[in-house]
Specification:
About 45% of the residues lie in helices and about 20% in strands. It is of the alpha/beta class. It has 14 helices and 15 strands. It starts with 5 loop residues before the first strand and ends with a strand. It has 3 domains: about 110 residues, 3-Layer(aba) Sandwich (Rossmann fold), CATH 3.40.50.2300; about 110 residues, 2-Layer Sandwich (Beta-Lactamase), CATH 3.30.450; about 160 residues, Reverse transcriptase/Diguanylate cyclase domain (Alpha-Beta Plaits, 2-Layer Sandwich), CATH 3.30.70. It binds 3'-deoxy-guanosine-5'-triphosphate (GH3) and magnesium ion (2 copies). One magnesium ion (MG) binds next to strand 11.
Length: about 425
C-alpha cells in the first residue's frame, strides 16, 4: 500500500511494549510510544497519529480517560484497545467511546495484523479521496481560465469560481436557471463560433481547427464583448471545457485585419480586399452560377475641388461620398476604394439591368447631395455584369472602359459596358 499509517502505542508494561513495538514498526511509517495516559495524550497532541493503540489499565491516567480526551480533540480518531480479561469493569466505561476495536491480551498478532491492514486500506482510500477533493478545490480556485465540466447530456455539472464570478452567479444551479444553455451566450459574429441550441455545440466546435475554436461572449458585468479560445477534453461520461481569454489578441487581430483590408481615409475596403472578394465571386459564378455585377465610379473634375478648396476639403468630400454610397448598398455588396477618387462595387446576385438602376440612383443622390461648404459634385459611372467569357482581369477592364466612356460622353452619366 502507498501510505503507511503513523501509530501511537501506549502501554505501561515495558516488556509488552517492547515486543509489540517491533511488530507495529513494520506496519507504520512512524511509531511513537508512551507508558501512560498523560504521556500518551501529550504525544498525541503533538503528532496526531492515524491510529492509537492503547492499554487500558495504566498508572497516572488510564487508557479510558486518555481516549476520552482524545475523542474530544478528534471524535473520529481510530483507537484500538488492548484489554486483559480482568479489565471488564473498565470496559463498561469504554463502551460509549465508540472505538475501532478491542483486542484481548496477550495480543494475537494475526488478529492485530488483520485489523491494521484493514485500517490501512481504509486510510489509503480516504487519503486518495482527500487528495481528489483538494485537487478539485484547487481547480475551482484556478484564477486564469474559466473551467466547466459537462455530463454526457451536455448538462453543466461543475465549474470553477472564475466561471461563476464571470457570470455573476453563486453556483451552477443558479447559472442553469439564469442562462439555461451556455451556447446561447455565444455572440453571432463571422470571426467567432456560434451554433443553434438544437445541435451539440461541443461536438461541433471540436470539428473546427484549433485556432477556429473561439467564441465571443458579452461580459454581463462589464457589458463588453470578450473573446475566448475553447479547449475541450472529451471522456465518455463527461467533457472538461476551458475558456481561455484571448480578448486582446482577438481585437488586435481584428485591428490588423482592418488595417490590411480597409482604406484608411474612407474606411471602405481597399483594393487588396476587393481583389480577394472578386476572386470569390468569380468562383461563385463558375461553381454555382450566381451572377454578379460591378459598378465603378469616379468623381468628376475632382482636381478642381482640390485646387480650389485644398486637399483637406478634398479628403472630407471623399469621406462624405463614401458614407453616402454606403447607405445605398446592401450588406452583401462589396464597396472598395479603387484608388484616388475612384471606387468600385461588387453586387452579388445582381444582373446588369438592376445594377444600372442602382448606379443611376447613386448618380442622382450624389448630384443632389450638399457636401462640405455647400459643395456639389457629380460622378461618372461604369456598369458591367460578369459574363461567361469574362475573367477577373477582363471584368475590371470592361467596367473601367464603361466609366471612361461615361467621362467622354460628358460626365455625370451611367454607361453600361
Ligand atoms: P475627371 O472628371 O476626368 O475624373 O477629372 P478629375 O480632376 O477628377 O481627375 P484627375 O485624374 O485629373 O484628378 C484626380 C484628382 O484627385 C487629383 C488628385 O489629387 C485627387 N485625389 C486623388 N486621391 C486623393 C485623396 O486621397 N485626397 C484628395 N484630397 N485628393 C485626391
Ligand atoms: Mg475624377
Ligand atoms: Mg480619376
Amino acid at each position: 500500500m502507498k501510505y503507511k499509517p503513523t501509530i501511537l502505542y501506549v502501554e505501561d508494561e515495558e516488556g509488552i511494549q517492547k515486543n509489540l513495538s517491533k511488530f507495529l514498526a513494520y506496519f507504520s511509517s512512524h511509531l511513537f510510544t508512551a507508558s501512560n495516559g498523560i504521556e500518551g495524550l501529550k504525544i498525541y497532541k503533538q503528532i496526531k497519529p492515524d491510529i492509537v493503540i492503547t492499554d487500558i489499565r495504566m498508572p497516572k491516567m488510564d487508557g479510558i480517560d486518555m481516549v476520552k480526551e482524545i475523542k474530544k480533540i478528534d471524535p473520529s480518531q481510530i483507537i484500538i484497545f488492548t484489554t486483559a480479561f480482568n479489565d471488564s469493569e473498565y470496559l463498561l466505561n469504554a463502551i460509549n467511546l465508540s472505538v475501532e476495536s478491542y483486542i484481548l491480551k496477550p495480543v494475537d498478532l494475526d488478529i492485530l495484523e488483520e485489523k491494521l491492514l484493514k485500517i490501512t486500506k481504509q486510510l489509503n482510500i480516504q487519503k486518495e479521496l482527500d487528495l481528489h477533493k483538494q485537487i478539485i478545490e484547487e481547480i475551482a480556485e484556478l484564477p486564469e481560465h474559466m473551467l466547466m465540466v459537462f455530463d454526457e447530456f451536455q448538462k453543466l455539472i461543475f465549474s470553477n469560481n472564475k466561471f461563476l464570478d464571470f457570470f455573476d452567479v453563486s453556483d451552477i444551479t443558479q447559472f442553469n436557471q439564469k442562462y439555461v444553455d451556455i451556447q446561447k451566450l455565444f455572440l453571432k459574429d463571422e470571426n467567432f463560433f456560434s451554433s443553434s441550441s438544437e445541435v451539440n455545440w461541443l461536438k461541433e466546435i471540436q470539428k473546427l481547427k484549433q485556432n477556429e475554436r473561439i467564441v465571443s461572449i458579452l461580459d454581463p458585468k462589464l457589458k463588453a464583448k470578450r473573446a475566448f479560445l475553447v479547449s475541450v477534453n472529451s471522456a465518455k461520461t463527461h467533457k472538461i471545457v476551458l475558456f481561455i481569454e484571448i480578448t486582446t489578441l482577438a481585437s488586435e487581430k481584428n485591428q490588423l485585419q482592418k488595417k490590411a483590408f480597409n482604406d484608411e481615409l474612407t474606411g471602405v475596403y481597399n483594393r487588396a480586399f476587393f481583389n480577394e472578394a472578386l476572386y470569390k465571386k468569380v468562383e461563385d459564378y463558375q461553381n454555382n452560377n450566381i451572377p454578379f455585377s460591378c459598378i465603378m465610379f469616379d468623381i468628376d473634375h475632382f482636381k478642381t475641388i482640390n485646387d480650389t478648396y485644398g486637399h483637406q476639403v478634398g479628403d472630407e468630400i471623399l469621406k462624405e461620398l463614401s458614407d453616402l454610397i454606403k447607405q445605398h448598398i446592401r450588406a452583401t455588396d462589396i464597396f472598395a476604394r479603387w484608388g484616388g477618387e475612384e471606387f468600385i462595387i461588387i453586387l452579388p446576385g445582381t444582373i446588369a439591368k438592376n445594377a444600372l438602376k442602382i448606379a443611376e440612383a447613386m448618380r442622382k443622390k450624389v448630384k443632389a447631395y450638399q457636401f462640405l461648404h455647400n459643395l456639389n459634385i457629380t460622378c461618372s459611372f461604369g456598369v458591367v455584369q460578369f459574363s461567361k467569357d469574362d475573367s477577373i482581369g477582363s471584368v475590371v477592364s470592361r467596367v473601367d472602359q464603361a466609366l471612361y466612356d461615361a467621362k467622354n460622353s460628358g460626365r455625370d452619366k451611367v454607361i453600361q459596358g
